[in-house]
Specification:
- The chain is 71% helix and 0% strand.
- The chain is an all-alpha fold and 438 residues long.
- The protein has a domain at 366-431.
- The radius of gyration is 30 Å and the shape is globular.
C-alpha cells in the first residue's frame, strides 16, 4: 500500500507536470474525484466551505486563466481543497508563479496559508503571496502580506531578503520613508544578501532625488570617524563614491580601508581589484586577482584566470598573459567558452593563426546551437579583420546553412552584405593602384 504522504507527492508531481504542458488548465482532473470521508462534525458548513474566488470584476479577463475550466467544471479545485495538504498548495502556487500565472498562484497561496501548520514556513508563504500580488501590480494588496512575511521570518537571512521586496512595494505606492527604512535594514544587515547591492543603489537614488545625498554621506562619515573599523559604513561610502558620486580616488580609499578591516572578504577584494583596474593601477589589481584565482571555486576559475591574463596583457607581459590563458584550457578541454577566451587573447597579440585554431576548436566542442554560431561568427570576424574575405564569408554562410535560428543569423546576413562593400572598396583601391602605375 502507498501511504498518504507518498500518494500526495505523486499526485503533486502529476499535477505540476500537467501545469507546464500548454492547454492543460484543467489538469487537476487527474486527481481522483472521490473526496476523503470526514466525521460529520469536522465538515465545514456549506456556506463556509472554501471555494476558488471569482475574477476581481464580472467579465474581467484574467491573463492567468487561459485554458482554465469553465465555472461548472471547477469542482476539481474544490476536490483538491478537500483532499490536499497545505504543502501541496504551496508547491503548486510556486509552480504557477514560476510560469507567470500569478492570479492562480494567489488563490493557492491563500489556501496554503489557511491550512498551514507548524511544519510549514508560513513566512515564506506570505512572501510568495505578497510577491505574486506585486507581479500583478497590486502593491497595496501586497504590503500586508510582505509585512507579515518580515514579521514572521524564521531567521535574519530570510528577514533581510523579504525586507527588500517589502521596500520595493513601499516605493511603488509612494511610501518612501518606509521604503528607506526597509532598504536600510537590508544594507545594514549582518547577513549578506543577493539584494544588498540593489538596496544600496535604491537608497542612493532616493536620497539623490530628495537632494539629501550629502546628508546621507555625512551620516556614514560620522560613523567612520567614531569607529574607523566600521566595515558596513566603509563599504557604503566606497559604493557611494563609486556609483553615485563617481569619485574614483575616494572610492579606492574607502575600499582599501574596508579591505584592511576584512582582508578575507573576497567580495571586497574583488571590488577593490575592479577599482584599481578602473584607475589603471594594474599591478595592484593583478595582485588581488591572483589571490582570487588561487582561492576560487572551480566554476569561477576560468573567469579569474581570464582577468589575470588580461591584466598581464595590459602590462604588456605577453608570455604571462598567454600562460594564464593556457590555464583556462587546462581546466576543461571541452569548454567552448574557454577556447573563445584563449582565442581572444591570441587575437589581441596578433597571433591570428593560433586564434583561428582556437575558434575552430570552440566550434568542435560546442554543445549548444548558440555556442556553435558564436564560434563561427567570431571566426568570420577574425578572417574579415585579416582581410581574408572569402574565408570570412564561408564562416558566415555556414551559420546560415546550419539553420539553427539564433540571433547570429541576422548578424551573419549583415556581415555578408558588409563583405560585399569591403570587396568593392578593395577593387576600387586596386584600380587606383593600377592607374598610378600606368
Amino acid at each position: 500500500m502507498i501511504d498518504a504522504m507518498k500518494l500526495t507527492k505523486i499526485t503533486a508531481i502529476i499535477v505540476l507536470i500537467a501545469f507546464i504542458i500548454p492547454g492543460t488548465g484543467s489538469a487537476i482532473r487527474l486527481i481522483p474525484t472521490k473526496p476523503v470521508e470526514r466525521d460529520r462534525e469536522s465538515r465545514p458548513p456549506a456556506e463556509e466551505a472554501e471555494t476558488v474566488p471569482p475574477p476581481d470584476k464580472p467579465g474581467q479577463t484574467d491573463p492567468g486563466r487561459a485554458g482554465e475550466p469553465k465555472p461548472h467544471e471547477r469542482k476539481d479545485f474544490l476536490i483538491l481543497e478537500e483532499n490536499m495538504s497545505a504543502q501541496f498548495y504551496a508547491d503548486v502556487a510556486k509552480a504557477y508563479s514560476k510560469y507567470g500565472r500569478y492570479d492562480r498562484a494567489i488563490k493557492l497561496y491563500h489556501f496554503a496559508i489557511k491550512r498551514s501548520d507548524r511544519s510549514l514556513n508560513v513566512a515564506e508563504l506570505y512572501h510568495g503571496l505578497g510577491t505574486a500580488y506585486t507581479r500583478r501590480g497590486k502593491y497595496k494588496d501586497a504590503l500586508q502580506y510582505l509585512e507579515k512575511a518580515v514579521e514572521l521570518a524564521p531567521d535574519l537571512g530570510s528577514k533581510t531578503d523579504y525586507s527588500y521586496n517589502l521596500a520595493s512595494a513601499y516605493s511603488s505606492v509612494g511610501q518612501m520613508d518606509k521604503a528607506i527604512d526597509a532598504y536600510q535594514f537590508v544594507v545594514d544587515s549582518s547577513k549578506d544578501s543577493i539584494w544588498t547591492e540593489s538596496a544600496r543603489r535604491q537608497l542612493f537614488r532616493i536620497y539623490r532625488d530628495r537632494n539629501q545625498l550629502d546628508e546621507y554621506i555625512a551620516k556614514y562619515e560620522e560613523r567612520v570617524e567614531k569607529d574607523p573599523n566600521d566595515f558596513k559604513a566603509l563599504v557604503n561610502l566606497a559604493e557611494i563614491y563609486t556609483s553615485a558620486r563617481h569619485d574614483a580616488a575616494k572610492s579606492v580609499a574607502y575600499y582599501e580601508k574596508a579591505y584592511a578591516v576584512r582582508p578575507d572578504n573576497n567580495r571586497i577584494r574583488e571590488r577593490l581589484a575592479q577599482r584599481y583596474e578602473s584607475v589603471r593601477q594594474y599591478e595592484k589589481a593583478l595582485e588581488l586577482y591572483k589571490k582570487l584565482a588561487e582561492e576560487a571555486e572551480d566554476s569561477m576559475k576560468p573567469y579569474r584566470y581570464e582577468r589575470v591574463s588580461n591584466l598581464y596583457a595590459q602590462l604588456n607581459q605577453q608570455e604571462k598573459a598567454l600562460e594564464w590563458a593556457a590555464k583556462i584550457l587546462e581546466l576543461d578541454k571541452k569548454d567552448n567558452y574557454a577556447y573563445i577566451r584563449v582565442a581572444s587573447i591570441y587575437r589581441r597579440y596578433g597571433e591570428n593563426d593560433k586564434a583561428v585554431q582556437m575558434y575552430r576548436k570552440a566550434f568542435e566542442v560546442a554543445r549548444e546551437p548558440y555556442q556553435k554560431e558564436s564560434s563561427l561568427y567570431q571566426l568570420g570576424s577574425l578572417y574579415e579583420q585579416m582581410r581574408k574575405y572569402d574565408k570570412a564569408e564561408e564562416a558566415y554562410r555556414e551559420i546560415l546553412n546550419n539553420d539553427l535560428k539564433t540571433h547570429y543569423d541576422n548578424n551573419a546576413k549583415g556581415a555578408i552584405n558588409r563583405l560585399k562593400e569591403l570587396r568593392g572598396e578593395e577593387r576600387k583601391e586596386e584600380n587606383r593602384e593600377d592607374n598610378r602605375e600606368d
